[in-house]
């Protein structure tokens, strides 16, 4: 079936290269998750979460899911860090 | 090699749970919960992947090209946006807890006082 | 339970869970070999049945439209819950936005940030609108477009113009827009019922060319309503948190 697909359209990526990209991104995502959890300071953790969201977006792109990539980019790299930083600023003001 | 994505899913889940269990700050716990949720997105997309296939959009490829599963992508897509709003709700609970009890350490917020 | 005990209990339990999980992985068909009949069936039928080339949006808003109604109402309930949870506790009062902006002692926003943020706010809204209205053709859709539109409003706050943000997105108007979005989705489904068809059936004309903007019937309409609702929900969430951070103060300060 894969040979048929490759013969009919020029759009399928050669299977071997896709595997290497996917494996690399998976390893990076696992490392990113570990990095996010091990960052104990909340403000630094929010920056790490933003980078992790970017890595996840590239992973979803490698899994041939462009609209999940769009969602994850807008939410995980922009909206979630903004909301988290606002909540952190609120808690810090309290302690003054 | 063919189950490596699912092993990564288990790793992300385990690491996120470890972060939740050993956390000393409510917002740190919430970010670890975000990490746990992201493992489910990877699981969904990994389950629907077809080797050598394209994304399920047919405006530039002919109509019956082999494509990956669109149903799990639809699930993951709404999932990502909705969980962000639920995380914001959790954060508002954390803010109110900080206002009431003055601390954000979950180990000290053990018993709920009225 | 001390933290060390907690950590050890977690590691033991996690090892047990990992053992079961890896045992289960040995029976899986492996990454890339997707055996199920549901996916290929939908891929075969979607373009012909709905005239939408974006199969994921067709699945989201037509084949599994009922699940999307549920998810959208999770979003709605979360935004409403935030408004309720962040209500004023006893002993707090709201300061006026104008007073607070005058005597805040934060450093002024740099000129570059202001210029870039204000320049980008317009194009970002246009981009979000494009995303929300092209669900049936491209990798886009109501959910992504809505979040992008909300991001434009956050850019206004980042440019240092908190007062502009409050004036451009008054809470009453945003809540009305959110309600219109949520109700529009449900009303589209109910209109199908009124016309004698099952709930959320695609009753509008399907259009001639698959993937054109005016094709695929109710999918485009539902995507527009979802975009409205998601954008309004996120603007509401960010607005609530901003008010909490900047305006709400305790009585004794």
Describe this structure as you would to a colleague.
The complex is a heterotrimer of chains A (96), B (114) and C (253). Chain A has helices at 2-8, 15-38, 42-62, 66-94. Chain A is mainly α. Chain B is mainly alpha-helical. Chain B is built from three helices and no strands. The longest helix of chain B is centred in the C-terminal third of the chain and has 32 residues, at 70-101. Chain B is elongated and about 60 Å long. With 253 residues, chain C is mainly alpha-helical. A two-stranded antiparallel sheet of chain C has the order 1-2. The longest helix of chain C is centred in the C-terminal third of the chain and has 29 residues, at 218-246. The relative contact order of chain C is 0.16. The chains are: A mainly alpha (96), B mainly alpha (114), C mainly alpha (253). Chains in contact: A-B, A-C, B-C. At the B-C interface, α1 and α3 of B face α1, α2, α3, α4 and α7 of C.
Q: Overall mean pLDDT score of chain A? A: 83
**Total beta strand runs of chain A:** 0
What's the overall average pLDDT of chain B, rounded? Answer: 87
Query: What is the general shape of chain B?
Result: elongated
Keywords:
heterotrimer, B: 114 residues, C: mainly alpha, two-stranded antiparallel ribbon
Short summary of the structure?
With 96 residues, chain A is mostly helical. Chain A is built from four helices and no strands. In chain A, helix 3 (42-62) runs antiparallel to helix 4.
List strands and helices in order, with pairings.
The complex is a heterotrimer of chains A (96), B (114) and C (253).
Chain A: H1 2-8, H2 15-38, H3 42-62, H4 66-94
Chain B: H1 4-21, H2 26-47, H3 70-101
Helix pairs in contact in B: 1-2, 2-3
Chain C: H1 3-25, H2 38-50, H3 55-63, H4 65-85, E1 92-94, H5 97-102, H6 111-133, H7 142-158, H8 162-168, H9 171-194, H10 218-246, E2 248-250
């Amino acid at each position: 079936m894969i040979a048929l697909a490759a013969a009919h359209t020029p759009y399928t990526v050669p299977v071997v290269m896709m595997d290497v990209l996917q494996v690399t991104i998976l390893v990076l995502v696992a490392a990113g998750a570990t990095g996010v959890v091990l960052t104990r300071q909340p403000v630094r953790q929010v920056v790490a979460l933003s980078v992790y969201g970017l890595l996840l977006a590239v992973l979803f792109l490698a899994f041939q899911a462009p609209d999940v990539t769009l969602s994850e980019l807008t939410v995980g790299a922009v909206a979630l860090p903004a909301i988290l930083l606002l909540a952190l600023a609120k808690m810090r003001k309290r302690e003054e | 090699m063919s189950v490596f994505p699912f092993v990564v899913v288990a790793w992300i889940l385990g690491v996120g749970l470890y972060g939740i269990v050993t956390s000393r700050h409510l917002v740190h716990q919430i970010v670890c919960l975000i990490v746990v949720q992201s493992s489910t997105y990877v699981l969904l997309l990994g389950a629907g992947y077809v080797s050598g296939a394209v994304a399920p959009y047919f405006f530039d490829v002919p109509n019956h090209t082999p494509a990956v599963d669109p149903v799990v992508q639809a699930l993951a897509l709404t999932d990502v946006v909705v969980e962000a709003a639920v995380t914001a709700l959790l954060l508002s609970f954390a803010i109110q807890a900080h206002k009431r009890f003055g601390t954000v350490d979950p180990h000290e917020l053990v018993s709920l006082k009225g | 339970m001390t933290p060390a005990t907690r950590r050890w209990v977690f590691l033991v339990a996690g090892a047990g869970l990992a053992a079961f999980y890896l045992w289960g992985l040995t029976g899986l068909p492996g990454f890339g070999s997707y055996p199920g009949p549901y996916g290929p069936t939908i891929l075969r039928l979607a373009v012909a049945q709905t005239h939408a080339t974006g199969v994921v949006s067709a699945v989201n808003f037509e084949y599994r439209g009922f699940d999307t109604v549920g998810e959208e109402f999770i979003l709605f309930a979360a935004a409403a819950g935030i408004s309720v949870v962040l209500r004023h506790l006893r002993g707090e009062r709201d300061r006026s936005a104008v007073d607070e902006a005058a005597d805040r002692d934060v450093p002024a926003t740099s000129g570059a940030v202001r210029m870039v943020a204000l320049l980008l706010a317009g194009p970002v809204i246009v981009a979000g609108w494009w995303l929300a209205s092209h669900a049936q053709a491209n990798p886009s859709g109501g959910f992504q477009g809505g979040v992008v539109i909300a991001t434009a409003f956050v850019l206004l706050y980042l440019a240092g113009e908190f007062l502009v943000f409050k004036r451009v997105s008054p809470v009453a108007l945003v809540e009305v827009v959110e309600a219109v979005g949520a109700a529009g989705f449900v009303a589209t489904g109910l209109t199908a019922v009124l016309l004698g068809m099952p709930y959320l059936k695609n009753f509008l004309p399907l259009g001639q060319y698959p993937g054109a903007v005016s094709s695929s019937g109710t999918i485009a309409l539902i995507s527009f309503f979802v975009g409205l609702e998601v954008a309004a929900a996120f603007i509401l969430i960010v607005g609530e948190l901003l008010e909490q951070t900047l305006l709400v103060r305790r009585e004794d300060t």
